[in-house]
Amino acid sequence: MNEVEVLIIGGGPIGLACGIAAQQAGLSYVIIEKGCLANSLYNYPVNMTFFSTSERLEIGGVPFMSLNPKPNRQEALEYYRRVQESYQLNIKLFETFEKAERLGDQRYAVITSKDRYIARNIIVATGFYDIPVLMNVPGEELPKVRHYYKDPHFYAYQKVLVVGANNSAVDAALETWRKGAEVTMVITGTEIGQRVKYWVRPDIVNRINEGSIKAYFQSKVTAISEHAVDILTPDGLVTVQNDFVLAMTGYMPNFELLKALDIQLSDNEKRFPSFNHETMQTNQPGIYLAGVVCGGMDTHTWFIENSREHAGKIMQNIVVSNK
């Protein structure tokens, strides 16, 4: 088996930051990523623009140069690739974590889809974008239903139903509408989400007000069929003819992975994982959390810019523990 002091699960921005911190601390490490480099960012919509400015997305002291005040997905992918080039991090792509077993000498035996490792410490930096929150309605398994939205061109001239009222839903609604789609939105609340990017929110509100995009507020999808969707509205049940459903209902961390590592989760709906905010160590010795995964279902607490510091906290604690 390959033996390292730190095994990092997740090769996104925070996983890379942890790798850099381990490298700078002189610790042997490996990063395991089940997809491509910065896999979650790769799965963002192709036209996605970050809310943050480029300097707040920087890691490892590598400057992030953007053509615009707020960088887009493509610029971010190129930036994090350049970070990898700069540090030559020990990262294993398209390799999935499978399980870990605690050994008697305070080490962990880790099995992945491609290899086996012995690690003194494990960092979970898996984010939250890989598992969608389901609507749990009949027909949700149909091929026409998508929980990820990529490119608006695919939906040109189609009848598109968008579920949700936050950034992902608003971007999907506006972009597909501008490609000629007939767009309907289903929103559980009374208005478009207040967290929608401030330069985008007026656009969607105006499109709804003028009738270009139809929106059902205080409503929910109750069933999906091959050519239609049933929507329960305050005025009763409405059936809308439909080609595609974009269910932008949010995402959640991989709780099964956390439970497999015996990390405690809170009993409430937020399912907060247990960890020390000073060291980022969980209730399991030698297992740490970094990044968005720390927030459980409260996925609007942690972002790249306010969780970059997790890497330094973790490495400092590991170095102190090794003395």
TrEMBL record:
This is FAD-dependent pyridine nucleotide-disulfide oxidoreductase. It comes from Russula earlei.
